[in-house]
Amino acid sequence: MFDLIVRHATLPDGRTDIDVAVRGDRIAAVEPHATLAAAAAGREIDAGGLLLSPPFVDAHFHMDATLSLGLPRFNQSGTLLEGIALWGELKPHLRQEALVERALAYCDIAVARGLLAVRSHVDTSDPRLLAVDALLEVKRRVAPYLDLQLVAFPQDGVLRYDPRRDDPSCTLSALQLLEKALDKGVDVVGGIPHFERTMADGLESVRLLCELAASRGLRVDMHCDESDDPLSRHVETLALHARRLGLQGRVTGSHLTSMHSMDNYYVSKLIPLIAEAGLSAIANPLINITLQGRHDTYPKRRGMTRVPELMAAGVPVAFGHDCVMDPWYPMGSGDMLEVASMALHVAQMTGRAAMRACYDAVTGTPARILGLEGYGLAPGCFADLVLLQARDPIEAIRLRPARLAVLRRGRVVSEQPPATAALRLDGRPARVDFLHRR
Q: Fewer CB within 10 Å, N or C, the chain?
């Protein structure tokens, strides 16, 4: 006897008419329907041939700023630097309760989208560590239904930021504030080397932060080379220290937008270096193409890193939403399929295998980058599942369809009716559901 069976599902790997049986909080069986047809369960869900997927995973987000659009004002230029300045204006007015409520509201949206794991950077450039305390509370409260992994992120630079600027009585350095955040329970070491005052300071910050992570046995995820400068070189330094410190497989470079501006000869050296060091890469297509290339007239650079080339070299590449309605980005929906769709278009990844790789970049690949335990669609994995109104991953990206059911640990946590439209057309069907009829 199973607790639940999802019947007649199509899986992302192309298998069809599959039954997925759940016992407790784990998947107990994944078999063709003919094998499990006689099995009984406390509840059954008929997938009707639609796509049953592991949940979406956002590998790069800023939950401390989410849904703060318009506070204390709007970003008039739409630039990265004004966004950073605006966040600096907002920080003195932040209240922990309001920050928690905005983050919880976003997590509600995420669950409804089938997004059940998020890696969020949290600003440590604040003597109060207000955002750190707030998101640790959010992490505790959402744990039953969403995995929230936190990155200690020195937004104003771990060498550039002087905490006495905001609190003259503070005796801690920016690096010590970041360490204090880790002591409180933040999971990952972050950084922003391209925002330090000089290239040399940026390189030194990478060394310091990687050594800190190695000493604590933690992962690293750095905002790296998030600029249009073709001479920005911090990711090669990140790769160097990952190898030197034995951090292969635990280090991520986020954004890497300068690679879109680098000359091909240098990149032909850089990408193998990244692969050799076991780095992962995270592109944030919605934000990268919005914030980069701002100094260009025409032609305009797209600003997103070299996703197909990194994937071809065996580098794990994930996509992040990065921002939703905050000082840097006034849009966003919490839908990782919107992110995958934008990446697909910007990177011109319209081949069948490439489009499926874009789906992987918001599901399985970021799950591996985050080190999520029990993720997947196999016996023994957690019963975290999303039933989509689409027949395969490519159609899911195309339609961004309804999430008919979202399951967390075998329990339905969100349901949505199918998206249909009633037609009043002579001689045509009465209803359309937008699916492709093969």
A: C
